[in-house]
Amino acid sequence: MIVDLGALEVLEAILAQGSFTKAAASLNKTQAAVGYKIRKLEEQLGVEIFDRNGYRAELTPAGLMVLEEGRQLLHHAKRIRSIARNLNQDWEPFLELVIDGAVPMAPIMRALQALAGCNAHTRVRLKIEFLHGVQECFEDDDADLMIARDVDDQTHYRTIPLPAIDFVLCVAPEHPLAGRARVTSADLREFVKILVRDSRARIGTSDDVIAADGHRALYLSDFDTKKRAIVMGLGYGWLPTHLIADEQRLGRLRPVEFVNGNTYAFTPRLVTRLNRHRGRALELLERELQAQFERAGGAHADLSLEPAEP
Q1: Inter-residue contact 108 to 242 (CB < 8 Å)
Q2: 94-164+267-296 maps to which CATH number?
Q3: CATH architecture for the domain at 165-265
Q4: Which of 39, 80, 211, 279 has its CA 20 to 30 A from that of 132?
Q5: Angle between helical axes of 106-116 and 280-296 (0-180°, round to 10)
Q6: pLDDT digits (tens, 9 = 90+) for 230-251
Q7: Residues contacting residue 208 through CB under 8 Å, at least 6 positions apart
Q8: What tens digit of pLDDT does each residue of 261-307 get?
Q9: What CATH number labels 5-88?
């Protein structure tokens, strides 16, 4: 059965305007054309939409149901037209972003908010990964954009450095390491090291040996869980300073006086593909991400020597 959307628009206009005559005027049609549309709709559906036995035509209960469902059809038709306009204006139908979980999420959310404010119908999938898993996910999923700390440069990559992310080596105030004025690597090996691993990493690999460095290790899936574990006193670990400002202010975390230094920074990189068409959504997100990270960041030193795993 083919339902005439034009007839549904006429039906909605009649109810909105209160009469066939006023609906015809609002639609710039003759009253005869409006009446014909409604009769054809009744024939198509096999139901009586208006009761014409009285002084004026009244909507029947069946007509009310048709109107309610018809409004949904009209709404979806309007969305389809809007989506089609978006696609014709070079807005992508879908984008996938892969983000390293160490970077602050507020600039990313603000960039996505800017995209949403454009009324674009682009659907965005955001994935959080860590370390080498970011680029692996970017390639395996054929994603459109990533923000990563470790990137094996490719000739088809467009790479933009973002403000550095600061890390600090910390423990809970009741942890034995918190009371030591001078902590060596040998001292660290006495306690559990809390690490974040990407979802693709396997314990026992060469990367795992470098990251754990002979320590007792607890592997977790994200930095928020890692922070909770360190606050609870389970062990020590490197945490991004943007994630622990409140804990430091309240004294729930203290830096470890590590002889090799208890702070470092890395420069995340925003990566897109040179060998792919850049639509308006990707252009907007790249521009907004740069602006939001610059606004949120500051002057940081990009240290050349950094721990194997923060």
Answers
A1: no
A2: 3.40.190.10
A3: 3-Layer(aba) Sandwich (3.40)
A4: 279
A5: 140
A6: 999 999 999 999 999 999 999 9
A7: 197, 201, 202
A8: 999 999 999 999 998 888 899 999 999 999 999 998 743 433 333 34
A9: 1.10.10.10
